[in-house]
Amino acid sequence: MLDLLPHLGTWRPAASGQRCAVATVVGTAGSVPRPLGTSMLVSEAGEVLGSLSGGCVEGAVVEAALEALRDGGTRREFFGYSADDAFAAGLTCGGGLEIHIEPLGTGPGRLRLETLYALAGRPPAGGAALIRRVDAGGGGAVVVPDPAAFQVLQSAGLAALLGAGSTGAGPVMLAAAAQLEPLLRGGRTGLVRIAPAGECLPEPVSLLVESRLPAARLLIFGANDFGAALVPAAKLLGFHVTVCDARPAFAQQDRFSAADEVATAWPHRYLADQARAGRTDARTAICVLTHDPKFDVPLLQAALRLDVAYVGAMGSRRSHRGRIDALRQAGVADEDLARLHSPIGLDLGAVTPGEVAVSIAAELVASRSKAAGLAQGSVSLKDASGPIHHYAATHQNSSLHASDHHDSNLHASDHHDNSAGMPEPQEAQWT
Q: For residue 333, what are the contacts with CB-CB under 8 A and spacing of at least 6?
């Protein structure tokens, strides 16, 4: 549901006061196109906002939503693949979706359109969560304006949603706190089932939790071509992006205007200031693209001592080995060095700044989902060996192509490694 909020204000049926129903994925089985919590709004005229399956079951869901609007009741529908009925609504991918359908209303125990408008009006940078009751025995929702600090045991709204009577450490509220708070504070979506002791219910109380924390920060150090390409890619992933470079002539270029912040400062000093101010946390990602030891070594020394989600650094394998030696000499422990993603990015064969940005973005996604190495058989470059660019390995004479995409800070030693002065293709990389 939270994904629909940015579009709610411009959706004509809601703005014109039409009655609407919300259909939400509350259960999945096997391969499905959309995850738990995905929602779609259906107006009484059959207009739709959002999608649950990319088209496989939408028609049938619209019909069920219109029926719910006519009779005022909630319902659950299951859609799976049917090999026996070619015309049945189902998922061709073979998975299954359980859909909860509820009319929006103003009565007790109803999810209200005003509730969604209130959520949609919150500042984009702020976090928010929505807890909805989606079992057959109840309905309604609770808006959580600050998921990271929410205390279940102190919430009268949640106690009413659960039918617990009052706040406090009762068994229902304790069970809710144990399951809800990790989802809320982690910014995740999940379905929580609570079976109150001593009560005979047809099914447990089911709560769908959707939590969004303020955007995680990505700190890009290096105002160069690669940094400029990474900014829009990172924005697409939802990061709050900062570009930092010690050189004003580089940092103040218009091509970095899409970043949320641009800082002109020595990188390691800027990072230390941000950490002291509490502006880095366990979701922060740091990408070091300067490829200059005078910036890289003190910056990585500071970064690897912070509790952050990701630290990556651009550099050829040769420069990476030299950087590791320098960091060890500076006292960085081996367990901290093991956290460094260098060469940076997934092994996609990337060469151009745009391709490199995709490679880095892919590793950020894989790191965030703990799925590094599972994306189309690609592995992290830090865990691979040999040539970084497959192009360079198969085009031994293309020395111009292999070198014309380097940052201006690359040193000659990174380009050459033999007495004849000929470029070594597998080392002449952006990394």
A: none
